[in-house]
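Case study 2.
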Amino acid sequence: MPQKPVKALEAHAKPTRQDDQSYREIELSKQREPETDDSSSSDESASSDDDSDTTPLTSLQATLKALEDRLAAKPDDISAWLSLLSHTLTTVPIGTKNASKARAEITISVLSRALAAHPSNTRSTILRLKYMKAGEELWHESKLNAEWDEAVQDQ
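Prediction:
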């Protein structure tokens, strides 16, 4: 008696050649069906593109986008860079594991962009000090010393 249920289970577990063949026929018939209206497929792709553009932004995303737009127009706007940094840092909760390192990496990323965006930004004491403070968390002593040397020369 135990062999009959096992065989019955095997019959259900393994697809038969007939099942496999019918599956393939369905797939082949889908591939063979010609597109009846090319414009409908292009309309569908166009509408899906439109959908992605209308996805509502979160408040943070909208703020970040506005700041990025503002900085694209006026890259020497120090307060906009600091605001961008502040808003970006809100994405990393302070109490999480490795938060200090993550926040330092974000700070270096944003402020290195700020320092490179406009020649006058390299003379901003607040941008440079925040950049150096974040660098203390991540950089080797030789890198930190080189950055300080560069900061002093830029002033």
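The domain at 59-154 is CATH 1.25.40 (Serine Threonine Protein Phosphatase 5, Tetratricopeptide repeat).
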